[in-house]
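Mods, move this if it's the wrong board.
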Amino acid sequence: MEIVQARLLQISGAFVGALGGVAYTYGELIPSFVYPLSFAIFGLVYTKFLWKLFNPNHNYDGDWWGYTEYQFVERQHDEDIPDLPIRKHHIVSFRQSPFEFRIVPSEGKGMNLWKSDSLTAYHEGYLIMAYSVTRSGSDKELPDVLGYERMTVMDRGFLGAPKTLKGNFYHAAQPDKDLYRGETKYFRGKPPEDIRKLMDNE
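Not the wrong board. Structure tokens:
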């Protein structure tokens, strides 16, 4: 995220310089309020849209679909452990700008509230996230947890924007909790119809 913010400062500096040149050349013809208004509009458009063109390698913004697979039990609290591995498909939505990077609550049965407590994108092409999950419905046999996940960019699309993410997650140690670890994989965009039906039935 530091790269995205630094690029914003660079582009903003160039824009302010251009406005200064316009003011010097046409200062008597253009009302003074036009300059701060122009910069405010530029800032809004840049932070909403243009930053993706200047930072395609760091653009994770949007909807992704994929799965979380529980593969191992690191610590078993009691005997009531479901058979592993368990794979749960769901949608994850990254919301990103030069000033924030977060995950909105995940869609999918059993993951009615999965949110990022901390999420950082690194220049090397990976994300690190601390998160919390609150269970419901058919997934009540799995615990509410705190966790840690590292996701790596496996494939890139047009202009280098991340297209496929693959990662590993680890539950944080908590009293009276079963601790799992496993794998995640996400693909940019909406899920295919067969995956959507699978989500509805899981």
